[in-house]
């Protein structure tokens, strides 16, 4: 393999971090969190109706993570307004819904890149346009892997959110302070597309509750990778030794 081939492999790999092991404590059937830290009570009292249709293409390992935010959007919106499709490589003949998204000129892929247009500059943001908002869900490496390994995504209009907001998802390390969780990305994008600032607080409420539960149970507040690099605190992760792995598992909330 050539040097460039190897670097493509690294850049476009999925960064497959093993999924979290199953939790043995009694769990909520909806959010799948232990009952003591279930965030369902913080969902909007009535699921919120929006015009935008959200499709989340989710790396399969993300579904096994304990601290996920996509289900918060799924249950926070009216049924049918958020669809989650799991996979790594989506063969279009197996996914007619994705085929339909590609054909629809109002489909936008929210993923940053050189060709991404600022979502705020999208015109016209007319009241009768129903956008299909496509998001990639996983770690940043996994989301990048999904983008690289599914060529149809290059056919979609690519947009990004120039958000002034800092992520409130403080219990999972993000690449930079401006990187938002899947839930935050979707909520801020819909609020912008539909001029609906009223949806932000109720839809983000479960995320705030989850972070509060984790901090109360001893989880550390995570700084972004960029913050750690800027402050000389970033340590490249070495493969864990057996004793380190055991210690990590003990410290991992939810195990
Ligand atoms: Zn629950």
Automatic annotation (TrEMBL):
The lineage of its organism: Eukaryota, Metazoa, Spiralia, Lophotrochozoa, Annelida. SMART domains: DTW. Pfam families: DTW. It comes from the Eukaryota. It comes from Paralvinella palmiformis. PANTHER family: TRNA-URIDINE AMINOCARBOXYPROPYLTRANSFERASE 2. GO terms for biological process: tRNA processing. Its EC number is 2.5.1.25. This is tRNA-uridine aminocarboxypropyltransferase. It is an enzyme of class 2 (transferase). GO terms for molecular function: tRNA-uridine aminocarboxypropyltransferase activity.
């Amino acid at each position: 393999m050539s040097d460039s081939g190897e670097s493509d492999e690294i850049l476009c790999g999925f960064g497959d971090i093993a999924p979290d092991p199953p939790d043995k404590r009694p769990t909520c059937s909806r959010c799948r969190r232990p009952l003591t830290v279930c965030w369902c009570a913080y969902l909007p009292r009535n699921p919120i109706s929006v015009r935008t249709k959200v499709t989340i293409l989710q790396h399969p390992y993300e579904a096994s993570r304990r601290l996920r935010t996509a289900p918060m959007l799924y249950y926070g919106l009216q049924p049918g307004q958020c669809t989650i499709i799991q996979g790594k490589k989506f063969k279009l003949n197996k996914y007619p819904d994705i085929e339909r998204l590609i054909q629809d000129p109002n489909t936008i892929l929210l993923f940053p890149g050189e060709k991404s247009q600022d979502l705020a500059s999208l015109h016209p943001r007319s009241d009768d346009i129903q956008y299909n908002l496509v998001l990639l869900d996983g770690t940043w490496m996994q989301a990048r892997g999904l983008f690289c390994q599914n060529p149809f995504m290059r056919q979609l209009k690519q947009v990004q959110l120039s958000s002034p907001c800092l992520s409130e998802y403080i219990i999972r390390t993000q690449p930079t302070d401006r990187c938002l969780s899947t839930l935050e990305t979707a909520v801020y994008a819909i609020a912008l597309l539909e001029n609906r600032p009223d949806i932000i607080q109720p839809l983000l409420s479960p995320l705030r509750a989850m972070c509060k539960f984790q901090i109360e149970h001893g989880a550390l507040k995570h700084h972004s990778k960029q913050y750690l690099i800027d402050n000389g605190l970033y340590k490249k992760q070495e493969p864990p030794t057996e004793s380190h792995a055991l210690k990590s598992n003990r410290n991992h909330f939810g195990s």
